[in-house]
Amino acid sequence: MQRFSLYIRYKCRLSILEPTQWPQSVIFSSFRRHRSGGGAASRWEGPRKSFAKHSPRDIHGENKTWVAKPAPSEKTDSKRLSIKPQNIAEVFQSGINQWSESRPLHQRLCTFGIPSEEIRPLLQAFVSAVQQGQLSTPEGFEKYGLIRFSQDMSSSQYLSETDVIYSTILFTWASDPAHESALAQATISSSTIATIQLLAQAADRSYPAEEFPMARKMHRKIIMHVGPTNSGKTHHALRALAASKTGVYAGPLRLLAYEIWERLNLGQIVPLGVEEELVSKAVEIHSTLDMVAPSAKKLGNPKYARACNMVTGEEQKIVEDNAGLLSCTVEMLSPEELYDVAVIDEIQMISDEQRGDAWTSAVLGVRAREVHLCGELTAVPLIRELLKETGDELIVREYQRLTPLAVEEQSLDGDFGRVRKGDCIVTFSRSNIFAIKRLVEEKTGLRCAVVYGKLPPEIRSEQAAFFNDPDSGYDVIIGSDAIGMGLNLKIRRIIFEAVSKWDGTTDRFLSVSQVKQIAGRAGRYGLHGNEEPGGFATTMCAPDLPFLRKTLDIPPNPLQYARMGPKKESFTMLANVLPPGSSTLTVHEAHAYIARLPPAYRYTMSSNTLMRKMCDFIDTRGRSLTVADRLLHLMAPIPWREDAILEVIAKFIRMYSEDIHVDLLVALAGTQFMPTMLRVETQMAARLPPPANPRTLEVLEGLHKIVVLYIWMSFRNAVAYSNHKDITELKGRVEVALEWTLRGMSNKVAFGTPERPRRSSPRSMPYQPNSNSQESRSLSA
């Protein structure tokens, strides 16, 4: 009975419901499943495994305490780890002593080139100035950016934000010529003072907008199209692009860039200014045929066709040398080209920890007379603040969802036999995707397509086309949160198998934005013919349903800040100022711990939980790489969690360092990648049925990543990565083999069943997939 009480208290603590709100049926049914290890035969019967074996681990392998993030609610979602502005000075001064005594700080200053014997005098002089209130004046608040103490610090995963703020204030203060005499009195040598000033100058990011002088010579018109998923916001922006003489589309995914490229060339986007009845007809045609069978996708109106090229990090499609339009991924957007219209999609990603700096550069630097920003309403206050630096005109157009979205009254209660045609089941583990596929096909006889982040964009697009085509035989789609971006799917109902996912550190509940983005894919406007418009959302298990219902009712919090990342110029300058032989991690961290940011707290540096591993790998395997080459490898699409692929990348680096020539086939020698590929091609040639072999699929996915990386490098260093044509052909072969292998992952798949819940999981569910697995951590990359 005591065990029962502890279990119920644990469930109630993590649930968005208070204990008194828990229905007795839910409490006792959950406890029975917890005690007995499962429910009815229709539910998953996973193998019993110890909790210790599957506890979360950090990058060094030690067991870590599982910390569950509270479920979002009006109360918890608004609770931020921040300081009220009126208390900043007091907190700043009271915390300075503890910060200045920390060992990591002293070690960091040594790596930055501050002599060890001068670190303590330097910090003592700084502490004295802070405690005397010299930095807490109204002028100091602006100069040192003390207002940053009031920003939300609850989402940082890699750098301690308070540590960063104190450190940047230290360098801003110590590099000020007005304080040279105070430092000299503290026995700080002139050479150390000069080093501090050079470091601060090299890392300075005080005026991000001024880093794009060509854009600052223009007065741009910025139009924000904001609203929920399925509100038509991007459609209106694309019509303006189709009507322009010169223009560019920049999106987050190669799949999206490809889709826009194809639609513009086929005339599927009606230009702005065309009569409304023609627009309605075109929208109907596109909505019905978008992402369906390849033959249907060729339809379009030649009258509206526009020559458009495509450039992504891994691929270029040149239709005409002088084509007026370009479709690209946001990282490939040039700040030098002049356009009439630019469309920047998914603008809310400007706050993304890893890629947000690309959106920041796009917003501040794109040279377009008219810039259309498409995304969530949460981005409006942040963009408004950023544009105060540029002087551009801002117009906000808000859209409402075109079709209703309703949460169903009941969950599926773990019964996969209740899945029906048009459903999409969302889970966050690759192995779970195929386990669910097997169960659904066994229980319902429906055939399932799959979509997840590790699949190449071409295969994802094909799987989506199968699901959308009513004659393909694929009635259900199962995927990760990859379905939440970049695919137009004929989903009638979204089913959340899970309401939490691994974030690289712990298992956390989905954010309000993530839930809305995924659930909003149901009931896509115009994709359901004569059926009643609208979509539905539910969960696989009853205890998760209140979470879904409540989260969808919560308005997401406005974005707090835009991300900034190292630039090639600052990376090189810092590497030259830092002590000779400084590690790549030291150069990267210098940007965060030294850079002076704008006084307002609307900017912060990008971060990555894998940065230490990335930098250590580059330094260990590429000691002879130049500074520019080190930065290039940090930016490259390398799957840092996959050790088998990293061994191939290590050969790339060695061949480049020794011969300035990288041979992909030589690098693949001795691995399982090419033998697996050739074996699959032999089986295909023999017209054998595709095997239900998950390992084969994993190996082919890895090979595709390696090939894509080679092509990515070939666009940036064509001399060393010179075999572009042959490798592009190999990429096509791998995709054919992947598609064929994927067909075999049906009801005979040997993926087993998901694992049982860990006690410390935040999920209030009767079963728990293995969300701590290596594959699920990078599932939506």
From TrEMBL:
InterPro entries: DEXQc_SUV3, Helicase_C-like, P-loop_NTPase, RNA-DNA_Helicase, SUV3_C, Suv3_DEXQc. GO terms for biological process: mitochondrial RNA 3'-end processing. Its EC number is 3.6.4.13. It catalyses: ATP + H2O = ADP + phosphate + H(+). Residues 411-570 form the Helicase C-terminal domain. One of its GO terms (molecular function) is hydrolase activity. Keywords: ATP-binding, Helicase, Hydrolase, Mitochondrion, Nucleotide-binding, Transit peptide. Pfam families: DEXQc_Suv3 (PF22527), Helicase_C (PF00271), SUV3_C (PF12513). Transmembrane segments: none annotated. Residues 38-63, 751-781 are annotated as: Disordered. Gene3D superfamilies: 1.20.272.40, 1.20.58.1080, P-loop containing nucleotide triphosphate hydrolases. GO terms for cellular component: mitochondrial degradosome. The keyword rRNA-binding does not apply. The keyword ATP-binding applies. Residues 767-781 have a biased composition (Polar residues). It is found in: Mitochondrion. SUPFAM superfamilies: P-loop containing nucleoside triphosphate hydrolases. PANTHER family: ATP-DEPENDENT RNA AND DNA HELICASE (PTHR12131), ATP-DEPENDENT RNA HELICASE SUPV3L1, MITOCHONDRIAL-RELATED (PTHR12131:SF1). This is RNA helicase. It comes from Collybia nuda.
